[in-house]
Amino acid sequence: MKSSFEKFAGWMALLAGISGFLYSVAFIVLQNSLLSALFLLLGGLFSSTALTALYQRLRGAESGFALLGLLLALSAALGSAIHGGYDLANALHPPASLNTDLPNPIDPRGLLTFGIAGLGLFLLAWLMTQEMIFPKNLAYLGILSAILMIILYLGRLIILQATSFVIVIPALLEGFLVNPIWYLGLGLTFLRDQNPPK
Description:
Layout: H1 4-30, H2 33-58, H3 63-92, H4 111-130, H5 136-158, H6 165-191
């Protein structure tokens, strides 16, 4: 019998995938600061539940690595939610003056949203490759997502110019395809009718 938390986490993972895709649409296509902030906030909240359930499944194999991956990924998810909340507050009530050249004080150049998130996801996805309960393709997609996020963070930190191919290509792949599909796959894995590991 599947635990109610795991079912809940499955739905949250699906919502995280949808929110991630909608964030990319709002940020890249629509360039709507209000919607992008809202979906960044929601994505961080939804993903934190999914990541906690993922940790519960992985902790039996390598508890230390699983815990480290969870701590990094949860820090990133909450940092992403705070970043989204900060941007949402500014979009709803624009301050008299806001220096947009300065990095976000909560998440400078995507340190949490991309850098720390990538490290946490890499650990968790690597552990998924060790467990038979996860589809291998889902685990490898998680590793690809982690690598793309780390590239995005380094690109935004070092190159900074948003139109650079080093930033644009990973952003499009990660935001529109890899990350949403990974969360949708994770959600479906949790919602499948199978017994979770003890």
